[in-house]
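User: Sequence in, structure out. Go.
Assistant: Echoing your sequence, followed by the structure tokens.
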Amino acid sequence: MPVSPLIGFTRFRDRRSSPCVVVTVISVLMAYKPVANSTLGEWLVERSKPAESPKQVAAIDVVELYGGVQMSDFGPLALKACRERMVQRGLARRHVNQRVNRIRRCFRWGVENELVAPSVLEGLRSVTALKKGRTPAPETLPVQPVPREHVEAVLPHVAKQVACMIQLQLLTGMRPGEVVQMRPGDIDRSGDVWVYRPIHNKTDYRGIDWMKFPNTPLSKQIEIGSARRIGSAS
């Protein structure tokens, strides 16, 4: 029977004055919005589409096993039960540990916003990660880079601006999305070391707002005229 996402939702500090109202696990998950465009709450209500985001995937076992449970009763054993279910479904050890960490981050957010008692989070932190060779969860092979000769073989067969983007990624290790948003005006080419300062990047919250790369022969081959048309190649 599906659990209503609207079951008892209030701050844990108010429970003394309202003893009949409790915070449930699913109510915390429903409120969890670490980023502005999070759709976890909407997905928990609808459940009409398969889980897509990492937050949705990590929430599945928690919701199905303990969604209606009081948050104060969700402890280390409950978290380990969710983890064991992931292992039984054949998930790799690394993926299981990632999902458990996402669950903990959700409830850490709950503590920060006074929806979860700090003692609950402290208990969940006591659950250690699965160790290699000490769990039936399988291991995953490390993702290897594409051989460079395969990448260079593509260059003559793509548009000039796309070739420029590929060369820039080889030089800097940038992601495709980061290359697409580049503008020549954001690159300081006045010295031996070029400095790229994008308007926004995924490490803004860490205070990292620039990228440096040497002025090598390869960087000189990346024509600025092509760079101006990078955006049109997406």
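User: And one key feature?
Assistant: The first strand starts at residue 187 and ends at 188.
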